[in-house]
Amino acid sequence: MYVVYLHTKIDKQMKKVFAFFTIVIVMSVMVLEKKSGKTEESKLFLDNVEALAAGEFGHDICLGSGNVTCSTGEKVEYVLTPFTLD
């Protein structure tokens, strides 16, 4: 009976040590990830991506005022998209 108690006590200590080291490792990874300094895309880069995505004809043609959101972000009544053979 004494041997079972001893193993249970050691198992609890090992679980605490394992949990402690797991927390330390997770926190270390989080700090390293934060310090890696991932760069954010610049405004110019995002504008260029948007221009490329718009195609050769540029942006949509927005007419009137209403509830429809145009590609420029303004609220319009109609949005005309140029015809393409893509």
How is this structure best summarized?
This is NVEALA protein. The protein has 86 residues and is α+β, with helices and mostly antiparallel strands.
Account of the 3D structure:
By secondary structure, this protein is α+β, with helices and mostly antiparallel strands. It folds into two domains: 1-38; 41-86, no CATH class. 53% of the residues lie in helices and 17% in strands. It has two helices and two strands. It has helices at 2-35, 43-54; strands at residues 61-69, 75-80. The protein has a two-stranded antiparallel ribbon with strand order 1-2. A hairpin with a 5-residue loop joins strand 1 (61-69) and strand 2 (75-80). The chain is elongated, with a radius of gyration of 30 Å. The chain starts with a helix and ends in a 6-residue tail after the last strand. The model has no long low-confidence stretch (mean pLDDT 75). This is NVEALA protein. Keywords: Membrane, Transmembrane, Transmembrane helix.
Strand content: 15-25%
Mean pLDDT, to the nearest integer, reads 75
Largest sheet: 2 strands, antiparallel
- Sequence of strands across the biggest β-sheet: 1-2
Low-confidence stretches: none
Tally the beta strands. 2
Helix count?
A: 2
Task: Give the H and E element order.
Answer: HHEE
Structural class based on helices, strands and sheet pairing? alpha+beta
| Gap from first CA to last CA | 80 Å
**How is the quaternary structure best described?**
single chain
Q: What number of structural domains do the residues give?
A: 2
